[in-house]
Amino acid sequence: MKHARTALFTALAAALVGAGCQSTPSPDGSTMDTTTAQQTAPEAAFSKPGFRVQLEDGRLWVLKQGQEKPDRPVILIGAGPQGMTLKAVDRETALEYVAAKPGFDVSVEDGRLWVLREGQEKPARPVMLINAGPQGMTLRAHDRETALEYLATKPGFDVSVEDGRLWVLREGQEKPARPVMLINAGPQGMTLRAPDRDTALAYLATKPGYRAEAEDGRVWILKPDQEKTGKHVARIGAGPQGATLRGVDSETLDRYMAYQP
User: Fold this and answer.
1) HSE (CB half, 13 Å, CA atoms) of 244?
2) What does each of the 261 residues of the chain score in pLDDT, given as a tens digit?
3) Which residue ranges make up each domain of the chain?
4) What pTM did the predictor assign?
5) What residues contact residue 250 under an 8 Å CB cut-off, 6+ apart?
6) Which positions make up the signal peptide (predicted)?
């Protein structure tokens, strides 16, 4: 059984930082500094391997290596992390940024999303999940397990699919003999299994651009630069499985609740 391990997120983040500490030659032969120190904290949080991002007036520019901002970009409203508008050179670049996840090779062809693990090749007869990908794309994969684990992968969690059921673990957790089970709570209606309810709720509440921390059945929703505070706002019953949501301010929770990735 294949696992999308949390360690992979850490390794990719470290690789990204290491790459950012180098200098890159520009087309005219001069040296262009690409250190992540030049990024704001939100930009660093929204970075993905293979892409460079820039926040501009609340919108997120997404560029591949060698691309420059065009005068007339492709715009995807609400498609970015935290529901931000994305700008890109072309639709394929924008969609591949949204779809990118550690542990998977993704590519967009004719509006459809290919998802492969390392070492896999595109089969002649792929598994297809209609409208299951970002922006309603049809998802193509080598096998159903790969497709389901791709859909289930979220930062901070180890996920695996066994017999059509989804296991969700935090780093260091082991599968218990008697897990918490949430029927039909996972992607594609999979039953979700976890060591405890708080782990399951935090997993379900996690969205791109936000982190979720569950305590006693209540879920904190935080942006990358936010920390829990003594004073907070709450939205009773607004979280997954009817959990109460907590946030630093109303704006954070309102934007989180409106954002449906």
Assistant:
1) 9
2) 444 444 444 444 444 334 444 434 433 343 333 434 466 766 888 999 999 999 999 999 999 999 999 999 999 999 999 999 999 999 999 999 999 999 999 999 999 999 999 999 999 999 999 999 999 999 999 999 999 999 999 999 999 999 999 999 999 999 999 999 999 999 999 999 999 999 999 999 999 999 999 999 999 999 999 999 999 999 999 999 999 999 999 999 999 999 998
3) 204-258
4) 0.82
5) 233
6) 1-19
